[in-house]
Amino acid sequence: MKIRQLKAFCAASAIALIAASGPAAAGPGDDTLRAAMTEEILNLDYNYTTKREYIILAQLTDATLFDLDPVSQEYRPAIATGYEWIDDLTLDLTLRDDVQFHDGTVLTPDDVAYTYNWIADQRSESNANGVVSRWLDEAVVTGPNTVRFKLKSVYPLVLRDMANRVMLRKSGTYGEGDGINRDAMANSLIATGPYKVKSFEPGTELVLERNEAFFGKKPEIKTIVVRNIPDIGTQQAELMSGGIDWMFKVPLDLAESLGATPMATHLSGPDLRVGFMVLDAAGHTDPDGPLTNVLVRRAINHALNTPDMAKHLIGGSAEPIHAACHPAQFGCDQSVTRYEYDPEKAKALLAEAGYPDGFPLEVWAYRDKAASEAIAADLTAVGIDLNLRYVKLESLNQARAAREIPAYFGTWGSGGTADTAAIARIHFDIDSDRNMSGDTALADLVLSAEQTADQEKRKAIYSEALGVIADQAYWAPLFSYSANYLVSPNLDFPLDPDGMPRLQNATWK
């Protein structure tokens, strides 16, 4: 029995079992949304975490200086009511005077300045340090409701970082000197968001209750319970029996099978994660190897049936992509050179490059085995003697850092940031081991986009850079990903175009 058929069979069997025992009540009876997450929740302070699960929770518990509209990609006032660039390196912010922390303390400019200065300090060891220390020289209080940010250099993504990455804490939260406590907010979070922590058992359950003193629009649902349930089958059973109302990262087969019943609703929306192949154009693994030839790299692009991969292996709203970014990201120019699926053209290009009988190629991969195998099959079909090495991510990272990988299938989610900067810098900075192009001019071009605050100029720079990447076939772009959810039929859960789940926007039908 094929894997797809087996999953559907298992789902159908489980549905039959639940149905036989009679339906269980689920819904808004106690105004509590119960969500399941596979990954363990161990730390509530997003200043010290990174995973998607923690981003989702931070949007519930924290508020930031600005909000980013997921549709228009415009920055909206939040804790900051306005801003003014005094010059290219000086940004003044005006703050609301009615923002309260969850313990009732009123937020002040001192809290804002403290938070940013702490995170920019290397001693903080914050996961946000690398982002903030890149641009922040110092944050200083300039009035009863104003803060000035002094920048190290021109940086056009300051508002993005303020909207996405830095969660505000009370002055002195993390201590000082020998009394530094980086885990101060890990279990007992005091923040400013629409929900506050009622109880937390790390790795087991988090209970959030609506913050009635929240300065912004209050969520409609009073209580959210987040349960750690590592097994997807257990999540499925809980959803069908009414134990949970929401699950995400659902395998497509299960989402479609269970979503076809009255017990659950299948939602499929966009995700900023994209899949791609990176090719050793620089010749790190072989200075005279086939991948240093642009005709070979173009042949590889033509050999890959990305429309079928997107439709049948990723599914949902996944689509083939043609540029080294997600189409929803600012600056992701879609007018670059496209390599349509054409195996015969791929063979002709290989022959023109001097490889009519193909060549041996080792491709590394660490996730989405079905897609990895499809890539291998497509390249084999045009004559490439392909060896697929399917490994753990840690092994791939180590081998890539040692420049031992000629090609790999990778993915990138951009941290949920709908800006090409979130994918371009880390993959095309010349000092990044992810950059296998060896193109220093391209690296300089990519980084120059972060040296201007002129958005139209940034867009033009990214268009030029993406055009070079496509023309030189440094990547073989594959597909965007799809986010699959299963929710209670009683729950209305809106999906945003940036693929970020926002439980605070959920309502009961």
Automatic annotation (TrEMBL):
Cellular component terms per the entry's GO annotation: ATP-binding cassette (ABC) transporter complex; outer membrane-bounded periplasmic space
Pfam families: SBP_bac_5
Keywords from the named record: Signal
GO biological process, one term: peptide transport
Domain Solute-binding protein family: residue ranges: 74-418
Keyword Signal (UniProt): yes
InterPro entries reported in the protein's UniProt record: Peptide/Ni-bd (IPR030678), SBP_5 (IPR039424), SBP_5_dom (IPR000914)
Nucleotide-binding recorded as keyword: no
Family: Belongs to the bacterial solute-binding protein 5 family.
Name of this protein: Periplasmic dipeptide transport protein
Organism: Pseudoprimorskyibacter insulae
